Amino acid sequence: KVAPCIGLLSTAINMDYLVKPFQRVMPEIDLRIGRALADLGNLDQIEAAVCWHPPQGALAGLPNLRLMQSLAAGIEHMMIDSSLPREVPLCRIVDPGMAGGMKAYVAWAVSHQQRFMPAYLSSRAEQKWLEQPIVAPRKHRVGIAGLGTLGLDCATMLANIGYSVSGWSRTEKLDLPSAIKGFHGAAQLGSFLATCDTLICLLPLTNQTKGFLSAELFQQLPRGAHLINVGRGDHLVEEDLIPALDAGLLSVATLDTFSHEPLPPQHPFWADSRIVITPHIATRTEPEVIVRQTLQNLEMIKQNQVPAHQVDIKLGY
Ligand code: NDP
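^ thats the input. predicted complex w/ NDP below
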């Protein structure tokens, strides 16, 4: 059997970190690393492309491409290429390890504010023993926008802690655990938002969800809500955030993703202590998982099977 030829394509990161994990599984594999098509050698040979912000137009320039594999849960970094070959299956990573990291981050982000940890950190710095109110989790309503692989896992975890949890999705969910109240579609968005003392964005970034976290949305939350964005930076209309904090619509925001990453040094979010900033670290997929899912998907396609975690290019997720 001839070893596959796989392109590792990114204009944003160095893809070298995937070489050894690929070679450990398949020493004879033919890997081509590139920021541009010109880096990839004979393009006819490339059967699969593993991508993070691939160069514009590159995937359409690979005549024998059989698999486009995102190395992340999201695919928006590939969908911005208008020449994407839509007949080639596009797959994303779905990984219990990634879900575990997201649950840990979300549990921290919610409880850090709900249990007044910033106040305890200040008290600690002043060597003061000072109790804050102890509010039972069931009295705190957490809403998750996006009830997919990660959103549903986080909702279940938060409900297990005892938070009052609701979720919002595009389509109706008929099989949600009884502890999670489901809402769906534009018509139920207002009712959902009214239940969110903490709102967590775990949507994919699509034409429909870009700018979802806006001034208009903040008006519909309970006053003083906590916003957590672990989706993508462009879900948030960044210029609407500080005015919403100033107006008391939000009390605090925990942001892991930003329109421009790294967040530029002069960005106003850095100077605002009401905004907790983490550098897109909510979770990550281990290279071994990317390697395994890519090789398995390519093999399935060669056997005329549907690959795992193929996205609907028309829906954009
Ligand atoms: P899924 O595709 O499994 O789930 C997406 C969810 O969003 C679904 O419930 C879907 O509804 C819902 N949705 C999509 N479009 C709309 C819409 N227009 N209106 C309402 N609901 C909508 O994605 P994952 O759970 O795997 O991942 C979600 C996102 O999390 C990723 O796309 C990525 O942006 C982000 N992420 C961030 C990371 C980080 O480190 N910060 C790491 C990993 C992921 P339905 O169920 O009806 O289809």
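Residues 116 and 132 are 7 Å apart (CA to CA).
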